[in-house]
Amino acid sequence: MPELKDLPKMALRARARAYAPYSSFQVGAALLCDDGSVYTGCNIENAAYSVTCCAERVALFSAVSAGRRAFRAIAIAGGPAGDAPREHCAPCGVCRQALAEFADEELCVLLVRDENDVQMYRLGDLLPASFTKKAL
Ligand code: THU
Questions:
Q1: Which is the catalytic residue, given 56, 87, 101, 106?
Q2: What is the pLDDT of residues 22-47, one digit of tens each?
Q3: Does the predicted model carry a pTM greater than 0.70?
């Protein structure tokens, strides 16, 4: 069963499948569910640029569409194509909001430069005072 420690490698592996011919910026994500299953995603770009979907949302929507709604952690690895990530790639605001729909502020967000250089955040620190369904 995969664990938190396995996520960085899975995100790096998913990054290799990015379809990013326009930005040449490849991102991979690996989302760990409460039941121990992991869903991965990569960014998928489009000639109509705004249609592009980030790796995090590809992973999240894949998990939700498979019936998962409870999550423990997500690992993200991003950087220019053809090279290992040079920096820690943080999730964009849209992906933070998408994650907040299903995860609470304790969701662990791992930013992966390489397997041995991982920064750890809480979703609540990356998206404080978020808009949620509680407000509706
Ligand atoms: N991208 C992601 O996949 N995740 C992020 O958190 C930031 C940006 C993608 C979108 C686009 O394909 C490329 O990276 C450059 O913005």
A1: 56
A2: 999 999 999 999 999 999 999 999 99
A3: yes
